[in-house]
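name: query_chain
kind: protein
chains: 1
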Amino acid sequence: MTRIEIDKDLYKQLQDCSVPAGFSSVDDFIIHILKKEVAIYENVDDDPNIMERLKELGSIA
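structure:
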């Protein structure tokens, strides 16, 4: 497994949200969030509406 650095304040926010969200650990919560985000970008090419929406939100150029 690879390690990443996360800002302490952001980690605290993730920690505070992980238990109410039903996760047993902050790591599990972070992995869940990252998988959801990656899935969005993996499917971008399949749906032009998603690509346009991401541009509107400033997520991509």
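note: The two ends are 31 Å apart (CA to CA).
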